[in-house]
Amino acid sequence: MSDMNTHDDDGAASVRWIGVTDAAAPREVAYRRILGAAARAIERRGRFLIVLAGGITPRGIYRMLRAADTDWSRWQVYFGDERCLSIDERERNSRMAADVWLDHVPIPRDRVHAIAAELGASPAALAYAETLRGVGDFDLVLLGLGEDAHTASLFPGHDWGVAASAPDALSVFGAPKTPLQRVSLSAARLSRTREVLFLVEGESERDAVMQWRVGADITASSSACCRRSEKASISSRITLRN
Fold first, then answer.
1. DSSP-H helix ranges across the chain
2. Cα–Cα distance between 43 and 123 in angstroms, integer?
3. CA–CA separation, 66 vs 104, rounded Å?
4. Do the Cβ atoms of 30 and 241 come closer than 8 Å?
5. Measured between alpha carbons, how far is 8 from 226 in angstroms, rounded to an integer?
6. Do the bridges between strand 169-172 and strand 235-241 make them parallel or antiparallel, or are there none, so unpaired?
7. Closest CA relative to residue 87, chosen from 79, 97, 95
8. Which of 21, 145, 214, 226 is most buried, most CB within 10 Å of its CB?
9. What is the pLDDT of residues 97-150, one digit of tens each?
């Protein structure tokens, strides 16, 4: 385990790297951190705003959360990105989260804010930006890291929405993997959070992690470690399975 606590003069966030060797350890670490963030947010602000990651890695964590002891009525659930597929497609991030977790706990349905990606990338991005209008800083953002160092659906060679003026949600066309159309929260919006937890497992993402650690300009560093807004305090945590 190694720690990088780097609060720079310009307000850059600190990054803590957590390396684990046991296959189950990343899920347990993430499970504890999610519930810890929820408890703090509910105690201090009366609600917990979380952004979910998609893909394979978080599924086991989401299953564990089905048995969590928490006040589900205080949770507000958002999504970092979505594939533009029909609403019942199993490859959708919202469908996966519902199947393995959200449909099994008493979170009020109107507090689970899925991206209407079935509308197509552009209208869905506009609709989700409207959903996020008036929503303050998130409490916790969950993100993954792809082999090409992308996170959410912010791919190399595409607009990441890093500028403060960027819209909260971006339409993505020509993604390097199917489906080609997606919707993603912008890097600027992902950065408006009190904490970011990156979930990374396996050898295929190791190169991307090493790029980050040596300071390469990748989407993960843009979303999690860009300059803080006046009120945000961002801590990025990366869970590695060696």
1. 25-45, 59-65, 93-100, 121-132, 187-190, 206-213, 219-224
2. 36
3. 6
4. no
5. 11
6. unpaired
7. 95
8. 145
9. 999 999 999 999 999 999 999 999 999 999 999 999 999 999 999 988 876 667
8-state DSSP, 138 = B
CA atoms of 229 and 164, how far apart (whole Å):
9
Pick from 81, 76, 75, 109: nearest CA to 94: 81
- DSSP bridge partners of 4: 15
Paired tokens of 207: 């190169």
What does the alpha-carbon distance between residue 140 and residue 233 come to, in Å, rounded to a whole number?
11
What's the whole-model pTM score? 0.83
The pLDDT mean for the chain works out to 82
Per-residue pLDDT of 36-45, as tens digits, reads: 999 999 999 9
Q: Tell me if residue 153 falls in helix, strand or coil.
A: coil
- Answer for the pair 218, 211: CB distance below 8 angstroms, yes or no: yes
The token pair that represents 118 in the structure block: 């079935």
Burial-class residue 136 by CB neighbours within 10 Å (0-12, 13-18, 19+). exposed
Ordered by start, the domain boundaries in the chain are 2-241
Please state which architecture CATH assigns to domain 2-241: 3-Layer(aba) Sandwich (3.40)
Lowest-confidence pick of 65-79, 127-141, 228-242: 228-242
Site of tokens 């720079």 = 8
Residue 116 CB partners (closer than 8 Å, separation 6+): 123, 124, 127, 128
Contact 111, 85 (CB under 8 A): no
